[in-house]
Design a protein that fits this description.
three-stranded mixed β-sheet; about 240 residues; seven-stranded mixed beta barrel; 3 helices
């Protein structure tokens, strides 16, 4: 295997479609990071999962933030500073008030603490890790003539800072083995981007040109999905290796 760079950022998203938290290290299992994407937002009247990329009603979800204290249920932070645990019975009412329609928290079937939550499903094939490189972001910035592009637009699990490689380099890793820290991965497929990439977030303005540029220049792909057959630990600064 050859060294290609190092882990620059690690992100965890306790609630799908909601802003996440940057962390320094995590245990990763075949189903994903500890406490990552265990819950999701649903329309309480229909049971349908949130779809910010398709339904403008859900776009405010990206202005919420979810954090996951160790050994506790996630906590949702609202733009006005209010914070509420998933274990608090008032949370669904607060979400309904925030969105302007009946909204609620639901759990995925693999979630350990799902008692009392309705169940929901992933809307897309689920992989334990979504990897993005700095070279891909730099290439996208160059194509859109922007000074930089925030990685949060793409909700990666891991952002890899690569050495002396330009362009959408991770697309070339499909089918290869990767190693990050003590974690062995396989690059399975490119990530097909959706409207979430241009939705506004705290400190990030709405920008449809982001998705248009990815569509025109990389067949709508940016980043890759990876699978893992065994558990391991990743940490910021870990060297990243790719099989040749």
């Amino acid at each position: 295997m050859r060294s290609v760079g190092r882990v620059l950022e690690i992100w965890r998203y306790p609630i799908s479609s909601v802003g996440g938290e940057r962390i320094a290290r995590s245990r990763v299992h075949p189903h994903g990071l500890n406490d990552d994407r265990k819950y999701g937002l649903i329309d309480a009247s229909t049971g349908q999962p949130a779809a910010p990329e398709k339904d403008v009603r859900w776009r405010k979800a990206l202005h919420l933030t979810a954090v996951s204290p160790e050994g506790e249920l996630p906590i949702v932070a609202f733009p006005d500073g209010r914070r509420c645990s998933l274990g608090d019975a008032s949370l669904n009412g607060m979400l309904t008030e925030y969105f302007g329609f009946a909204a609620a928290i639901a759990a995925y079937e693999h979630t350990r603490w799902r008692l009392g939550f309705p169940l929901t499903r992933y809307r897309h094939p689920h992989f334990p890790l979504h990897l993005l490189t700095t070279s891909a972001l730099e290439q996208l910035a160059k194509l859109t003539r922007k000074p930089a592009i925030d990685s949060r637009r793409f909700r990666p699990t891991v952002l890899v800072e690569v050495d002396r490689i330009a362009g959408f380099v991770e697309s070339d890793w499909i089918g290869r083995r990767l190693r990050l820290g003590s974690l062995d991965l396989r690059a399975e497929e490119e990530t097909k981007r959706c409207g979430v990439t241009f939705v506004s977030q705290p400190g990030i303005t709405e920008d449809p040109e982001i998705l248009r540029t990815i569509l025109r220049n990389n067949k709508r792909h940016l980043g890759i999905y990876c699978s893992s057959e065994a558990s391991g630990t990743i940490e910021q600064g870990d060297e990243v290796f790719v099989s040749v």
